[in-house]
Amino acid sequence: WNTYALTVIQSADQQREVLRGKVNLFRDLLRPLGILCSSESQIVPIILPALDKRQVLKQTFKEAGIWIPIIQHPTVPKGAERFRLSITLDHPEDILHDIINILKHNL
Questions:
Q1: Rounded to the nearest 5°, which phi and psi values hold at 85?
Q2: 85-106, pLDDT tens digit by residue?
Q3: What is the pLDDT of residues 21-58, one digit of tens each?
């Protein structure tokens, strides 16, 4: 099993590049909104300290059929609450653009 797992990991270069491209695109789209992400992983935190904005966005995402969990205090310090988006290979770029458009219209 371990040998098989290593083979799969080593042969997944193309998938990693596609995922990295989606993550970089999303981070580039966030930057003009003033949302900076220090992490380079596919887990993208969107930190919004204002509770009212988080709740409005949560409802707007839900209405658009997009589920992004909110990580709240005490899991993170007060004022550092965030949406936690986990980008996968299965996310089409259209969804990433939809998320950005929702953020643009609600920030």
A1: -95, 125
A2: 999 999 999 999 999 999 999 8
A3: 999 999 999 999 988 777 789 999 998 767 788 888 99
Residue carrying the six token digits 């009212």 = 52
b/e code 84-100 from CB counts within 10 Å (16+ = b): ebebeeebeeebbeebb
Residues with Cβ within 8 Å of 25's Cβ and at least 6 positions away in sequence, in order, are 93, 96
DSSP letter (8 states) at residue 71: E
- 60 and 99 in contact (C-beta within 8 Å)? no
Question: What value does the mean pLDDT of the chain take?
Answer: 89
Please name the residue that has the structure tokens 């992004």.
Answer: 68
Residues in the chain: 107
